UniProtKB/TrEMBL annotation:
Alphabetical keyword list: Isomerase, RNA-binding
Protein name: Pseudouridine synthase
Pfam families assigned to the protein according to its UniProt record, in alphabetical order: PseudoU_synth_2, S4
Superkingdom of the source species: Bacteria
Entry's EC annotation: 5.4.99.-
Span list, region Disordered: 1-69
Family, as annotated: Belongs to the pseudouridine synthase RsuA family.
Amino acid sequence: MNRPARRDGTPDRNRTSKPKQPSKQGGVPRLSNAKPARTQNVAARKADRAPSDGVPGTGAATGPEGEGIRLQKVLAQSGVASRRVAEEMIADGRVEVDGEIVMEQGRRVDPNVAVVRVDGVRVVVNENLVHLALNKPRGWQSTMSDDMGRPCVGDIVAERVAAGQRLFHVGRLDADTEGLLLVTNDGELAHRLMHPSYEVPKTYLAWVQGEVPRRLGNTLRGGVELEDGPVKADKFSVLEASEGRSMVRIVLHEGRKHIVRRLLAEVGHPVERLVRTHVGSVALGDQRPGSLRVLGRDDVTALYKAVGL
């Protein structure tokens, strides 16, 4: 190993580089409480990839002999179908690239840029896109860092960020709310999921004070006036009600601050515990608190469809 040199050019054997120590908060090293998944996405196949020489801003190459990856191979690598079946799909006119139906075999595309659809449904072919589900624990901040040293989402994805992945969370949950939070580097998808005009539903389980009458659902679906405007529940159901406490399920498509807590408090049932279980059709399932899960192709495709991508 080469050692640092003195000003006269001779090695200084007393000087050695020291490894960086983990950052500490209150004298205790801050570590992620969840081990990221071993595989975030499909392994890059660099030897088989090249930038497109087609129209700038599109994923299409100039023809069968252009640069890029053959379309049927892209579809096979994305898990849509085997290469043979993918060839049949192309021949049947079921595949489009950047809005154009492609029927010739051997068409090459750049998967980092191309928008590929099969039967009108978008297929995720960009291997650099990351889509994760996080079960945010209660008491954790929905931020990538926290100046006060409180545990946050950034701690859970720290190893991935350190490896060069530029991740961010889609929306946020308040510190006392648990459950599903999406983490990605897919900017357009994240923007649309958060924008109220796309009305992507979010489902919550809430444990509230008081025995909730089942007729309350009519009131919530009809709309309740809050200080910053009216809000309506898309769906509402009482799951349990006994001994002065109830568990309810509520679905909303908007994301105003503390909207579920404020809505239920307004109708006389303050929230004691709140868990988000779904974003669109993506479910939290039995994922443990603080853990990450790579979304499957079906989940990502459903999110794209929900926001019109």
